[in-house]
Amino acid sequence: MIPLCVPKGQESVALRCGATWSSAEGCHVVEALPLIMEPTSPLLGFLPYRFRPDRAPPYVRPWMVPQPLWGWNLRALLAKADWDTVRRWAYRRAGYRCRICGQRGSDYPVEADEGWAYDDARCVQTLKGVVALCPRCHEVRHWGRTMATGREGPALEWMVFINGWSTEDAQNCAQAALQEWSLRSARSWTCDISWVEQTFGLPILPDARERAAARQKNLVGLARQTYYGKP
Ligand SMILES: [Zn+2]
């Protein structure tokens, strides 16, 4: 059974695609993928990434923000009400299910994950979108925080399960992400979140840079305490 990410208002479209409502799952589901699926089928848009025939693993992997940009997230750069607008938009368009695996968490069904792209030639981190993820997929993405909280084991297991990998595959992927993070963290980066303004017309706070820089300093201090026991 495959859980679907059906936004409110799209229920009838999902039903026409062969979906049924599952009370047990609390969402629309399909029993299995159709043998043939047209690229234009609306079902494709409802499928979590790991079930989409046009996608291949890895569906979830660590995606680490370089240390100079720690804290440069929408929570810090936007007014609280504006960040709420963006993240709730992401939740609604995923039908409050994880876009990667279709599951949801017990305390918080989904969390908002910022999709950053990295231009290593120009050292620019660019926001490409915000998606709803379940806590388990989200903790794989935020590998640094996951390491700091001692959650590597469950996160590796989740990577194995979602990507259909061996444990060694998952360990190699996490190791490669750390090496990439280390190389990127040695350089100076700028952050481009113009996607928010273009998509929602929402402004960045006037003191956003100062707030983000203060946050970055604070987070680096916390990491030093965690790993080296000194500020
Ligand atoms: Zn998930």
UniProtKB/TrEMBL annotation:
Highest taxon of source: Bacteria
InterPro entries found in the cross-reference section: HNH_nuc
Protein name as catalogued: HNH endonuclease
Species name: Acetobacter garciniae
